[in-house]
Write a structure and sequence with these properties.
heterodimer, A: mainly alpha, 2 domains, 76% helix, B: 332 residues, mainly alpha, ABC transporter involved in vitamin B12 uptake, BtuC, two-stranded antiparallel sheet, 2 strands, Amino acid/amide ABC transporter membrane protein 2, HAAT family (chain B), branched-chain amino acid transmembrane transporter activity (chain B), ABC_transp_permease (chain B)
Chain lengths: 289, 332
Amino acid sequence: MVIRLIIGALMIGSVYGVVGIGYGLIYKASGLMSLAQGDMLMFGAFLGITFYKYLQLPFIIALLLTMIIMFMLGMFIERVMVTKLIEKGAQTVYIILCTISISMILQNSSMLTWGSNVLQFPAIFNSASVKIFGVSVAPENLLVLGVGIIIMVALQLFLTKTKFGISMRAAAQDEVAASALGINVPLTKGTAWGIASMLAGAIGVVVGPVFGVYMSMGAMIGQKAFAGAVVGGYGNMFGAIIGGVFFGFLETFVSAYLTSNYKDFITFGILIIVMILMPKGIFNEEVME
Amino acid sequence: MEQNKKSAGQIINEKKFLILEIIIVALITAYMLRGTYPSLILCFICINTIAVTGLDILFGYTGQVSFGHAGFYAIGAYTSSILSIKLGIPVVISMIIAALVSMFFGFVIAIPASKLVKHFLSLLTIAFGNMVYIFLSVTKDLTNGFSGILNIPNLNLFGFRFKSNQSYFFLFAAVAILVLIGKKRLIHSRFGRALIAVRENPHAAAGMGINVKYYKVMAFALSALLTGLAGAFYAHLIGFISPDGFNNNQSNVFMTMLLFGGIASSFGPLIGSTILTIVTEVMQGFVRYQMLLYAIFILLVLFCMPNGVSGVIANIKSRIAKRKGKKVEPRA
């Protein structure tokens, strides 16, 4: 029982962690806040189900195609919408309004395209369950966990080992200095938004078989991922992961042992308490004023 | 100082314009009041104006962002309905109690919130809004869950029973106008200037002897009071409430209206809620496409006027003033 709960908590926690990393990337790169991450996850899940179920592509190709499309979508949003708005002299809060309307557009265009019912993602693996430590777990759950870990490791390698990743971090630290050194700052910003939405889309595809795919699936996940990112220290990658896993555990164990009706109520209540006690998050990340 | 003095002719001109505007608005209103449905829209406009003004005091003037105002809206609506149905308290009193209860929650939320900035604050308010929403949907004994509360009694004031939307409109409009005037008076008082100082630079404000925490908490409470009152109005106007109307989207709707109209401006909330309420109602006809069109509309408006409607109005005004060769004050 406990092992199954722990696996479930790790699974949902890695979902929150990956989406939370996206918030952090966007914030680090451009100092802005996007409220559309949860709906990026939803949109990615719909794209994945389209490629896998209706176009009959192999799962891995469906996943990669979704990631490419989501990357371009994120890039498009940054390059075409956000930058243009900032050039026009909009205040930062209006960027938030922009992302709110983007999330509404994503939700409603998905509803119009795919309908408002819950779509069942067909099984990815042949076997119905896998034995781990004596308990049987659906392999799709392990897939979520595996993809989450792969994404985190790959992103870390990308940001620390590749030239472009290092220039992205440089641009995040000091735009002016970075552009003086010949780094294409607008490109790194666009890439950061692109990667953020790509990550959300990818995790959306693998989470689809677990929860089913529906229009509002992203809303709650997006908010809890945001909660994880903030509690971990906004803009800190490890913070986002640890915060996400923390909320995964909290939610799973509260609904298993206390009450499932009030699980989100308690989750958010504890979030508020954590914020009062630790206003800067676990990793003491400084907040830009 | 020379520029600030207006010639007598100008004052008359400005007054003429104001009177003309009022007459036009009154004529349109009177025409709309002939039908039940148009007057319902007018009522919504007034309610939204009150709620958005509450948000404006908090966000526009004090710089405290909130994505959870639907929580206060819900508290106002549910408290007033439950009190009037279960305890049989007269509606006027239950409305006032509801607004006060909402204000109390504002206090409670503001005490941790006044320490937080930016993302932390937005997260806290999102968490608060969600907590209220979840509480309403799962506590079936009190709130009847997702089936909602039916048959909320009408308002009864000094023996006059509010039955039609028209009669409600006159009350709501009066309150909305009072709220708008009150906000203007408040902002130009010592209290309002302190709020703006807190928004511009909390450290400098503290250095000048302003009790930053006190003003942040007061702004939160005042904001919650107004939004809660709007919620109570909504409940008694419609006669039916369910948690669906008070989820995160509603908070975003308030925020959108405020940003659309323009933050920290005297008529921003009025303009924003008027235009967006009418747009929403007009788009009801498109059923499935309604929200999509709504979102696209907001995006288009954002690109055409990046700082809200009142930003454009201020721009035009300063352009006219420049053409006349006057000094223009930078926009606050």
